[in-house]
Request: fold
Amino acid sequence: MRRILARAHADVLAQLAWANVLVALDFDGTLAPIVDDRDGAAMRSSTRELLAEVCALYPCAVISGRSRSDVEARLGGVPVSYIVGNHGVEPSVGMERFEEVVRAMRERLESAIGGIQGVEIEDKRFSLAVHFRRSRSATRARLAIEAAVAALPMKTRVIAGKRVVNVLPEGAPHKGIALEALQALSGADIALYVGDDVTDEDVFESERPGRLIGVRVGRRASSAASYYIDDQPQIDALLARLKALRSTQAFASARRAST
Reply:
């Protein structure tokens, strides 16, 4: 992995000054810090201001594991072009067919693990998130959750996150599929995607040379992302760099150089 903001890789971002690009980002752990109380997750004011400025210069998308309405509320009116929730499911063609399956999964999981201290089942309509951030024994809670999910009679796709186990119906779209659809919809030649978690690997693993730049929040050797930023607060520096690339002077210079 290479540090996207390093001087040695300045050309990677410089191409975005004139390219037809879609900027896409995860929310928790990327635009907003990870917090113990997920209901309290919010962008810093500096991030909110920078994101709004970047949205005025590029088409932007937020692709999150949260429900679409939840993400929209947390963006607080920042004019992103696209909002995708439920790890890529919402919106998608035929997504309604997943509701009944998710309802049945929730009922069975509530019966099996609903009484375990610190375990909370979040129903996001098209997927479930089983949180255990407040559990006194994270290992024990995770094992119980994994056993309960494995015992479900319906086929599922399970994505382990940071003190959360995400459970989706088999066949549900993932973030990589969602980003490809947005790229086609927006007509973007290239997409920049920034994410921090296991669910974002679906995007990084689909990285296509010349079509997608994957950036992970935090360096990790096992990640399929080609680039990284050091930590979540550094998202401000990346957004500021994107803003600077399309400042009047820089953008005009890049345009002249490309013609």
Observations:
- The first helix runs from residue 10 to 14.
- The CA atoms of residues 97 and 126 lie 9 Å apart.
